[in-house]
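Hey, resending since the last one bounced:
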Amino acid sequence: MMKRSCPFLLVALAALSGCGSNGGFSDLQAFLDEVRARPKGSIEPLPKFKPYESFTYSAAAMRSPFQPPVKIDLISRQKGSQDIKPDETRVRQFLEGFNIETFEMVGTLGNEQGAFALVSGAGGVHRVKVGDYLGRNHGRILSIDEAKIDVMEIVPDGDGGWLERPRSIALKERS
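The structure tokens again:
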């Protein structure tokens, strides 16, 4: 057994003896000599940066520059009336705390008490009837049919008067 492993041992020793020679690293030695020959302190200083100046965008409430300007004709603008005004003394209903645009009509119900509409919004589905109020602009429900809810809102005209503005909430079809 010793006789068989002897030639392999000699081959392994011969291979390892070749690793000790310094002739294979001449390019590495030349690079290190070049780096050592460079003058000390040749590192460039860091560039000077300007401090950050904050910017506050103050035109957020202005008209978008990508939209055409709105021309208001003050003469033909509808004037409000002092006779029309909301009843500020009545108790406000729950659905008046939300914008009317958030509501969608999703169905109707009917029984011996009358017709009711089902509106989705304000965190659920609500049953409303004629005479109920809906939306933030004192919107009173005038009529309910199978396709829509008619609402009359009372909105300020900007000159101290009030305007009646009719709106409809159409039935949302299945999607």
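Strands lie at 104-111, 114-121, 124-129, 133-134, 139-144, 148-156, 162-170.

Sorry for the duplicate.
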